[in-house]
Structure formats: structure tokens, C-alpha cells
Amino acid sequence: MLTSESITTIMPAFIKAQGNFAPALKLATNPHFKSKYVALDGVIDAVAAPLREQGIAIMQMTDVQDARTILETRLIHESGEWIGSRYPVHPVKADPQGEGSALTYARRYALMALVGIAPEDDDGNAAVKAADKAASAPITEEQEATLRDALAANDKQVEGCLAYFQIERLSDLPASKYAMALKIASTKRAA
User: Any residues with CB less than 8 A from the CB of 54 and at least 6 apart, and which?
Assistant: First the structure.
């Protein structure tokens, strides 16, 4: 990890921000493998607002060393202190599309590593989710209305919520998942 000379101000602010990070949601679909993944905007949505509230900005910039693109990610506090990392970009194809795709991939993973989040692991939990869904009563009509209002107020799409919780209608959401859904819905999108 790279840091400014002092990190005595940024670290307490970062710790406060980290406690308010939203889950990194696997809402994007890889068309080749039909698998879900967290897109770059999903990572930013999960962390940007809590960081800003603590006076921390996210910066990602590139440099070229030995004919290779290097991504530098920094969290910069309003005090001037910062923490950061460097990540080599590995394009599969040596063309603009390959470079752009590799850079987006690098930005996503470098930011998740720096802030200490990971996408929700649903690979090993599919059976548990199915059992939870069957065992839990659905949310009430009042909870459904509250959830719809929170989604709309924060520019979130109902379809994203349905896909994330693997349900067809909001009314199918298990009551045991309501608090998590409301927290996700209530998280403001990064500007």
C-alpha cells in the first residue's frame, strides 16, 4: 500500500466510511458465461457516498512504465493525506478495446482491494438462499410500498432489486431479506 507521509487523519475517517459501505452487488451479466458480476459503477455506488461524507475522494489515474499501463488508485482526504495502490493493467488484446476493457477490470478490482470490500459470494450459497426463501414469509404490502419508495427516491431500479434477490416481484421478497433490501435501496447513488 502506498501512503502519504502521515495517515493519522485519513485512517479514522476511512474506518468510519467503511462502516457505512453498501454491499457490492452482482447486477451485471457476463454475456459469454452468463454469470453475474459487480460492475465498476456498482463498486463506486457501494463506497463513494460514505467516503465523501468523511471528506475522502476516490481518484484513479494511469501512468505508463516500460510500455505497460499502470493504474494508480488513491483515496485522498480533505486534509491532503492519502492511501493508494498501483495495479498493472493486462489487456488480452493490444488494441483500444482490449486496453479499455482491461483498465475497467483493473479499476474495479483495485478499488475493491483498496477499500476492503468484495462482491457478495453467492456461488456457494445458492442452496441456502433457496431454503431461506422457502422458509421465510414474504414482506407485507406496507414493506413493499416502503421499499418501492426508497428505490425510486435513490434512482434505483426495481428490476435490479428483483435480480439481486432472485425474485419475480417485490412482494415475493422474504421478510428475512427486507432490512438488507431497504439498506441497499436507501443508499444514494454516486454522483
Answer: 13, 14, 16, 17, 77
- Rounded Cα gap, residues 93 and 79, in angstroms: 40
pLDDT per residue over 118-147, tens digit each?
A: 876 554 444 445 445 454 688 888 888 888
Summarised one tens digit per residue, pLDDT across range 39-84 is 899 899 999 999 999 999 999 999 999 989 999 999 999 999 999 9
Q: Which three cell numbers stand for residue 29?
A: 451479466
Cell of 23: 454491499
Cell triple for residue 105? 477490470
Q: Within a 10 A sphere around the Cβ of 189, how many other Cβ atoms?
A: 12
| Residue 133 included in any domain | yes
Does an H or E element contain 63, and which? strand 56-65
- Whether 102 maps to a domain, the answer reads yes
Q: Are strands 56-65 and 82-88 parallel, antiparallel or unpaired?
A: unpaired
Give the single-character DSSP code of 177: G
Instruction: Give the count of domains, the chain.
Output: 2
Instruction: Give 3's strand partners.
Output: 83
Domain that holds residue 160: 126-186
The cell numbers describing 107, all together, are 479499476
